[in-house]
Amino acid sequence: MSAYKAAGITYLQYTNICARALRNSLNEKLRTAAAPLNQNGLKFAKWENGRASEQASLFLELLLFKI
User: Fold this and answer.
1) Which of 20, 7, 5 shows the shortest CA–CA distance to 64?
2) What is the mean pLDDT of residues 9-32?
3) Which of 11-15, 16-20, 37-41 has the highest mean pLDDT?
4) How far apart are CA 46 and CA 19, in angstroms?
5) Name one Pfam family in it (predicted).
6) 3-state secondary structure of 18
7) Which one, out of 9, 52, 54, 57, has a CA that is 20 to 30 A from the CA of 44?
């Protein structure tokens, strides 16, 4: 059994934890450069009569786990 399954988390959660741990271990200069990688973009559209009428974008910072 995989370690992440034994811990009761999904593979996506596992990779997010690993990525955050790596970014936190960087020195200050590299950590600043990697900070934008800690954000996810979200696009959505309002659908009316079977067509997307309005598109918008949101940028959300991942706050699932704090290491």
Assistant:
1) 20
2) 87
3) 11-15
4) 32
5) ATP-synt_Eps
6) helix
7) 9
Q: Where are the beta strands (DSSP E) in 11-50?
A: 39-48
Work out whether the CA dihedral 14, 21, 61, 53 comes out positive or negative: negative
Average pLDDT, integer, range 4-29 = 88
Q: What is the amino acid identity at position 10?
A: T
Query: Taking Cα atoms as reference points, which of 47, 48, 44 lies closest to residue 58?
Result: 44
- Spatial neighbors of 21 by CB under 8 A, at least 6 apart, are 67
CA distance 8 to 43: 29
